[in-house]
């Protein structure tokens, strides 16, 4: 995806310890808010490389635009664009690294491997959102399993959130928050279903097989079955193609179920983390 941005920029550039050139172009009006957060790009890229493999492009960075018509962030190859307000307000400062982790995770999921058709969009947004959950674990703010359970507990069964069929949402629903959040839930549930070793192998092979090309939901499901040796038809039917809240058994990992025979219990700090996260996702799902 290409974009030309013309304006008055403050350019920050450097080379990371791993040898990757970083080029940030920041509108002067955004600089005081953006500079501190963009200062963590090196750390975030290194974290994502440890999770997903070598960074696929020859440089990384950001364009931070003050243009008011750009209300969201978007994962342009090597240079995500962050609209006005991405970093500006105080409550978003703490979310800044999550937004950067999300957009940079798209360098793997979305830019290295693009979607075959738009109906496969959960592969982009679910996996980029899942990268935020991994980042949360990394910074000690809640594990992916805790976030899965907290999200599940926070959204009642009659909430329209569950009506979106994220495996084929249709054009009007394509960037609804469910595509992001239920997408990330699906990824963690898959990790529970197949186990950690098979899970990371699925992601590795997915990126290898489809690098510089596209992938579809059908191909992802087939790969997950092949790597894990499991029949996952029922699993994907529940998570991707059924417009209702999955049963609690689909959310609890075996280990978690054994530990918590009484069902889902959410740590208070994770619950408040989740409330903010859901609000953020809702606010920014006008793109990116
Ligand atoms: Zn995204």
The count of strands amounts to: 7
| Overall pLDDT | 87
Helix proportion of residues, in percent?
40-55%
Largest sheet: 5 strands, mixed
Question: Gap between N and C termini, in Å?
Answer: 12 Å
What are the low-pLDDT stretches, counting only 5+ consecutive residues below 50?
none
* Structural domain count: 2
Listing every helix as H and every strand as E from the N terminus to the C terminus, the arrangement reads: EEHHEEEHHEHHHHEHHHH
What is the CATH architecture descriptor of the largest domain? Orthogonal Bundle
Rg to the nearest angstrom? Answer: 18 Å
Task: Please state the structural category.
Answer: alpha/beta
Which cofactors or ions or other ligands sit in this model? zinc ion
* Contiguous helical run count: 12
CATH class of the largest domain: Mainly Alpha
**Global morphology:** globular
Instruction: Write down the CATH topology of the largest domain.
Output: Neutral Protease, domain 2
Quaternary structure annotation: single chain
**How is the largest sheet built, in terms of strand order?**
1-2-3-5-4
Question: How much of the sequence is in beta strands?
Answer: 5-15%
Question: What does this protein structure show overall?
Answer:
The chain is an alpha/beta fold. The chain folds into 2 domains: 10-105, Neutral Protease, domain 2 (Orthogonal Bundle), CATH 1.10.390; 116-281, Neutral Protease, domain 2 (Orthogonal Bundle), CATH 1.10.390. Helix content is 48%, strand content 9%. The protein has 12 helices and 7 strands. The protein has helices spanning 31-38, 41-52, 90-93, 96-105, 121-138, 144-154, 177-194, 196-210, 217-228, 233-240, 254-259, 268-284; strands spanning 10-15, 21-26, 60-64, 73-74, 81-82, 113-115, 213-215. The chain has a 5-stranded mixed beta sheet, with helices on one face. Strands 6-7 form a two-stranded parallel ribbon. A hairpin with a 5-residue loop joins strand 1 (10-15) and strand 2. The longest helix has 18 residues, at 121-138. The protein is globular, with a radius of gyration of 18 Å. The mean pLDDT is 87. The structure holds zinc ion. Zinc ion binds at residues 75, 102, 106, 125, 128, 288.
């Amino acid at each position: 995806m290409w974009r030309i941005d013309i304006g008055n920029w403050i350019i920050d550039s450097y080379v990371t310890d791993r040898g990757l050139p970083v080029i940030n172009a920041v509108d002067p009006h955004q600089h005081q808010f953006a500079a501190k957060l963009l200062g963590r790009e090196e750390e975030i890229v290194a974290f994502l490389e440890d999770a997903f493999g070598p960074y696929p492009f020859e440089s990384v960075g950001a364009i931070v635009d003050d243009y008011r018509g750009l209300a969201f962030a978007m994962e342009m190859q090597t240079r995500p664009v962050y609209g006005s307000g991405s970093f500006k307000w105080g409550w978003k400062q703490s979310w800044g690294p999550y937004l950067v982790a999300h957009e940079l995770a798209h360098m793997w999921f979305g830019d290295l491997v693009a979607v075959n058709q738009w109906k496969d969009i959960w592969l982009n947004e679910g996996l980029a959102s899942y990268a935020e959950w991994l980042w949360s674990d990394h910074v000690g703010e809640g594990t992916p399993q805790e976030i899965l359970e907290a999200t599940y507990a926070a959204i009642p069964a009659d909430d329209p959130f569950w009506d979106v069929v994220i495996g084929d949402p249709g054009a009007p629903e394509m960037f609804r928050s469910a595509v992001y959040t239920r997408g990330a839930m699906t990824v963690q549930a898959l990790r529970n279903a197949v186990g950690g070793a098979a899970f990371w192998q699925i992601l590795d092979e997915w990126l290898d097989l489809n690098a510089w090309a596209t992938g579809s939901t059908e191909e992802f499901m087939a790969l997950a079955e092949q790597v894990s040796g499991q029949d996952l038809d029922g699993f994907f039917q529940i998570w991707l193609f059924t417009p209702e809240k999955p049963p609690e058994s689909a959310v609890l990992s075996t280990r978690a179920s054994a530990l918590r025979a009484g069902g889902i219990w959410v740590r208070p700090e994770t619950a408040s983390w989740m409330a903010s996260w859901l609000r953020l996702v809702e606010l920014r799902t006008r793109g990116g």
